[in-house]
Write a structure and sequence with these properties.
This protein has helices at 2-10, 14-19, 22-47, 51-60, 82-90, 105-114, 149-158, 177-198, 202-214, 218-227, and strands at 72-76, 97-102, 119-122, 134-140, 160-171, 231-238, 243-249. It has 255 residues and is an alpha/beta fold. Helix 5 links the parallel strand 1 and strand 2 (97-102). Helix 1 (2-10) crosses helix 3. The radius of gyration is 17 Å and the shape is globular.
Length: 255
């Protein structure tokens, strides 16, 4: 299996990897994250000049009203377990049960070391092995890696409890052309030099840069969530639109 997954990553150019769908995209992304897991958080931090951590703190704090005591939270594409760690730290009085799911076993091993008491399971966002038990479903910097964006959003929404909400944080290509050009120069000219210095596999960085510049805009994610039946869909943007948090509520059954 490892050989097949590794060859899935090796078989495609970075930009082509972003455009893959279904099982091929899942194999490509899983193999890539298995390979880059140790340096991935650092790379994200450098790409955004530390903004990724700031955006996470801004987006995932002050959510007390959306988190009833003793509720369950699902973090999809949990990576190294940051959301589980942060929610336990910040909302400790809520006594939350946070489950992290990811397609990369190596990422999950890191997550288990970061938060040994949390639950982390291997899974595919396109077919989550859960029922609608979660008061909140989060996904952070993952949309570009979904094997199928619409199906992934459908699954996030499905496993959300009626009355609960989906919280998405991601980097998006800015709509402002000046910021778009600055981002392009940063990602295509400056960052490859830094990536080469810290990563064994520069190709993973190329995929990341390509995917950041080609991700669908927040309005497309909002539209897809509303089409699934979500209400009170609210988007908050950060740093000139280079990142956004989308919160969408699943109506209670009586609504």
């Amino acid at each position: 299996t490892t050989h097949t997954m590794a060859s899935a990553f090796d078989a495609h150019a970075p930009a082509a990897g972003f455009r893959l769908r279904g099982a091929e995209k899942l194999a490509f992304v899983s193999a890539m994250f298995d390979r880059v897991a140790p340096t991935y958080d650092l790379l994200n931090h450098l790409i955004s000049l530390g903004q990724t951590t700031l955006w996470r703190v801004l987006a995932l704090s002050w959510l007390h009203e959306l988190l009833p005591p003793n509720c369950q939270v699902l973090d999809v594409g949990c990576g190294t377990g940051w959301v589980s760690w942060w929610f336990r730290l910040l909302y400790f009085r809520r006594n939350l049960t946070v489950t992290g799911v990811d397609c990369s076993e190596v990422m999950l091993e890191h997550a288990r070391r970061v938060v040994p008491t949390a639950k982390f399971v291997k899974g595919d966002v396109s077919k989550l092995d859960f029922e609608d038990d979660f008061a909140m479903v989060t996904t952070v910097y993952t949309l570009r890696n979904f094997p199928d964006l619409e199906q992934g959003l459908r699954e996030l929404y499905r496993v959300t409890k009626p009355g609960g909400c989906v919280v998405i944080l991601d980097a998006f290509p800015p709509s402002n052309w000046v910021m778009k050009r600055i981002l392009q120069i940063w990602l295509d000219v400056v960052m490859p030099v830094i990536a080469k210095a810290i990563m064994k596999d520069e190709k993973a960085y190329r995929y990341l840069a390509s995917s950041i510049q080609n991700t669908v805009p927040p309005v497309a994610v909002e539209r897809a969530l509303r089409a699934l039946g979500a209400v009170d869909v609210v988007t908050m943007t950060y740093t000139f639109g280079t990142a956004a948090r989308i919160v969408a509520r699943k109506p209670k059954r009586a609504e």
